[in-house]
Specification:
By secondary structure, the chain is mostly beta strands. Helices cover about 0% and strands about 60% of the residues. Strands 3-4-5-6 form a four-stranded antiparallel beta sheet, with no helix packed on it. The protein has a four-stranded antiparallel beta sheet with strand order 7-8-9-10, with no helix packed on it.
Length: about 200
C-alpha cells in the first residue's frame, strides 16, 4: 500500500494478519497509482509529481525509473509479459519491462484508470496479441485494446468499447477469462467501477 509521504509498505498476510512489513522509499510525493506483476516479481508506482519507479518485489530494491512528467495519470504492468503502460492527459504509452518504449497512441478522452488483462481470448479480436489493455475514462466509457506486432510494426488497436449508465469517472477496471459452456469458447469478462461506487460487467 502507498502512503501519503511517498513510501510503499509491503505486507505479507498470514491467517488474516499482516506480518513482515517492509518499507520501500524513493518517492518524494504522495503515491497515486501502483500495479504488480507477480510473474515478473515487479511493482510499478506513480506519484503526484509524475515520477514512475520500478521495484523488485522480493528484495524491495529500486530497479529504475522513468523521466518525470507532471501529465502522467496512471500506470499498469502486465502480469504475463511485464510490459508497462503509462497514461497521460490524452495518450497512452506502452513500454517493455526494461522501460523501452514501444508505441504512443492518442486517446479520445481523459483516461482515469488503466489495467492489463491477465489472459483470455476476446470475441472479434485478432488471431494473436501480446497484451490486452483496458482503459477507463472520465466520461464513464471503457475501452479494450489489443497490443500486437503486425508487419514489424507495433499496434494498439481498439477491440471493444463499453458505455456505462453514468458519465462519471471510471476508477477501476479488470478483465477475467471466462468460459461459454454452450459454445465451448473462451470469453473475456470486463468489469468496471465508477466514482459513485457503481459496478458494471460485460462479456
Amino acid at each position: 500500500n502507498g502512503v501519503v509521504f511517498g513510501c510503499i509498505n509491503k505486507l505479507r498476510l498470514e491467517k488474516g494478519q499482516a506480518v513482515g512489513q517492509h518499507t520501500m522509499c524513493g518517492h518524494l510525493y504522495s503515491i497515486t497509482d501502483m500495479d504488480i506483476s507477480t510473474e515478473n516479481n515487479v511493482l510499478i508506482s506513480l506519484d503526484s509529481s509524475g515520477k514512475v519507479l520500478q521495484w523488485d518485489l522480493s528484495s524491495g530494491r529500486l530497479i529504475g525509473g522513468m523521466e518525470k512528467s507532471g501529465s502522467m495519470k496512471n500506470v499498469a504492468i502486465s502480469n504475463s509479459s511485464g510490459n508497462i503502460a503509462v497514461s497521460n492527459n490524452l495518450s497512452v504509452t506502452l513500454l517493455s519491462v526494461n522501460r523501452r518504449p514501444f508505441i504512443t497512441v492518442d486517446l479520445p478522452h481523459m483516461p482515469t484508470t488503466i489495467r492489463f488483462c491477465e489472459e483470455g481470448e476476446l470475441p472479434h479480436a485478432f488471431s494473436s496479441f501480446i497484451d490486452i489493455l483496458m482503459i477507463g475514462y472520465e466520461n464513464g466509457v471503457v475501452e479494450v485494446y489489443a497490443f500486437t506486432l503486425e508487419a514489424s510494426c507495433w499496434r494498439l488497436k481498439l477491440v471493444e468499447k463499453y458505455q456505462t449508465e453514468e458519465s462519471s469517472d471510471i476508477t477501476a477496471v479488470g478483465g477475467l477469462k471466462t468460459k461459454d459452456l454452450n459454445k465451448n469458447s473462451v470469453l473475456l469478462q470486463i468489469s468496471a467501477m465508477n466514482a459513485n461506487g457503481e459496478m458494471y460487467t460485460w462479456v
